[in-house]
Write a structure and sequence with these properties.
alpha+beta
Length: 267
């Protein structure tokens, strides 16, 4: 999510990945196998050092230093190579970030019991494309007094992206959308008392709440679309790393389950 919840991305492989790497398939098989095992070991180490950090919210200075070292080690394992949009396509779940605009959400949820932040995703829609696609930055959140815990509502920030160099994509933000609102049983009981028959009108009210969507265009004061540049530093079938250009933070994603969003645009 670098500014405007626009998490960055990345490119690289382990065994079977196809980012241009220092490990060529023309290498003798024992050396190639050893190189790929080293690569996998670095990935596993990266996941270990970010484990139990609550996406960075609970870390010490020493932990943050170790995490950065692990990131750099993975990133330097893959030199060159262009972005593989087929591999990038799909849903990625945020595991760790140093982006201030994401951390402020996590910190607010830790400070205020009436606000929860659930899973955070980045969904790329670029399969079959040659030079770009659409990205959806997704935050599951809730106000437990009124909504279901952890998954009461969904915030989506969408952007078109284009490939501008081997490892950089440019995001052109489009809109912020609030959708998928699920009120908790207590509030439902107020709207439709459990001891009374559910009338057509009361059921229509519940359906309206669930299907409600609010959309806000993303523009600067000059009415132009807001954009951002992201460096894709590592990508394989299970892990995605990236950095927002301009000091917006680093991001670690793991492959997530397919995420369905209503009314996806720019397909």
């Amino acid at each position: 999510m670098a500014s405007r919840l626009a998490f960055p991305t990345a490119q690289t492989p382990v065994a079977g990945a196809n980012c241009s790497s220092p490990f060529s398939n023309r290498m003798p098989k024992p050396e190639l196998k050893a190189a790929n095992l080293t690569w996998q070991h670095k990935e596993h180490h990266q996941l270990r050092v970010i484990q139990d950090t609550q996406r960075r919210l609970v870390t010490t200075a020493d932990q943050r230093s170790s995490i950065e070292e692990a990131l750099v080690s993975l990133e330097t394992s893959c030199s060159g190579g262009s972005i593989d949009l087929e591999r990038l396509d799909g849903t990625w779940r945020l595991q760790y970030t140093s982006a201030p605009d994401v951390l402020v959400l996590l910190d607010s949820a830790a400070r205020f019991p009436f606000f929860q932040v659930g899973q955070i995703f980045q969904k790329f829609d670029c399969r079959g494309k040659s030079n770009g696609g659409v990205i959806y930055n997704v935050v599951k959140w809730s106000l437990p007094t009124f909504l279901e815990e952890g998954n009461g509502a969904t915030l989506v920030v969408s952007a078109k992206f284009s490939v501008v160099s081997a490892r950089n994509i440019y995001l052109q933000f489009d809109q912020i959308r609030l959708q998928d609102i699920y009120i908790n049983e207590g509030l439902q009981a107020l709207i439709v008392p459990a001891l009374l028959p559910r009338s057509f009108l009361s059921l229509q009210v519940l359906q309206f709440i669930r299907s409600f969507r609010a959309e806000i265009p993303v523009q600067d004061r000059g009415r132009s679309s807001v954009g951002g540049l992201y460096y894709l530093s590592y990508l394989d079938s299970e892990m995605l790393l990236g950095r927002a250009v301009g000091g917006g933070g680093c991001f670690v994603f793991s492959r997530g389950q397919p995420l369905q969003l209503l009314a996806q645009r720019f397909r």
